[in-house]
Design a protein that fits this description.
This protein is α+β, with helices and mostly antiparallel strands. The protein is 47% helix and 17% strand.
Length: 98
């Protein structure tokens, strides 16, 4: 469905509904949609999320240590929500909530 769209655009698109999501939820959805299995791809997608947050398009609203190994054991998990700036940039890129 979304495999042709740049990953960062797809991340914004997933969050356009305004709901808060954990990084591992976003990463697993992207991995499935783009057929990107493995730890390297997992971490690469997570880095894309971090870049969007550092650019002001996503806001980090909660953190917790991954004690259960959902993403990566002892790793710090982050919950994100899209910002108004992210919504505006997504609109500029003709993204829509899917």
């Amino acid at each position: 469905m979304s495999g042709n769209r740049p990953i960062k655009f797809r991340i914004l698109e997933i969050l356009l509904d305004g709901k808060e999501r954990w990084n591992y939820e976003i990463v697993s959805k992207i991995q499935e949609e783009y057929d990107m299995q493995g730890n390297y791809n997992r971490d690469s997608i997570n880095f894309d999320i971090i870049e969007l947050a550092s650019g002001g398009m996503l806001k980090d609203v909660e953190q917790k240590v991954d004690e259960d190994g959902i993403y990566k054991k002892s790793f710090l998990l982050h919950k994100y929500v899209i910002t108004d700036f992210g919504k505006a940039r997504g609109s500029d890129a003709c993204l829509r909530y899917v």
